[in-house]
Amino acid sequence: MRLAIFGATGRVGGEIVRLALQDGYDVKALVRIPTKLYENEHLTIIKGNVLHNNDVEKTIDDADMVISTLGVCHTTTLSEGMPHIISSMKKHHIKRIVTIGTAGILNSRREPGKFRFQTNESRQKKTFAAEEHAKAFQMLKESDLEWTIICPTYLPDGEATGIYRIEKNQLPLNGEKITVGDTAKFAYEECFKKQFLQIRVGLAY
Prior knowledge:
There is one protein chain. Helix 4 links the parallel strand 5 and strand 6. An 8-stranded mixed β-sheet has the order 3-2-1-4-5-6-8-7, with helices on both faces. The chain is of the alpha/beta class. The chain has 5 helices and 8 strands; from the N terminus they run E-H-E-E-H-E-H-E-H-E-E-H-E. 31% of the residues lie in helices and 20% in strands. The protein has a single domain, classed as Rossmann fold (3-Layer(aba) Sandwich), CATH 3.40.50.720. The protein is globular. The two termini are 31 Å apart.
């Protein structure tokens, strides 16, 4: 099994890389700073940028599935990079992609037809990050890929407990947080289980 991972030097991405290598899978990771990843015989590190189509091509060309944990950090990297990922996947006939989103792009309970970030259900006052994730969601929704978007709420550091709640397209009621460890483990396992195809998954304790 060969995995292409974007955002591998982030908190969730780094943990997914660890889980994949622990299971003996071959991983290709596109990163801007290679020294942020440790060397492993099953890990191929590609120095580059998701905004450059050629770099994305090198990462995806022989993969069986794609994982994206790309963040936002006040940039449009996510919304600008996702078209390259989608087009490259289609070119190489790769169907499966799991991404990490945000609870803000889950459906509002109080105001049907709106995202949580568009209502007072979200505690975030600034909406730039959620808007970026919403753009990526729309792109995946319009594709014919087997996508799943994992949408954690507040994301503190912490190990996987295996005890949490999930809900399709909404945040579990009164959900307030979920650790990096549980988010990464759930996303990694969903790559293979394919229980939530074309669905956003709310994740919280």
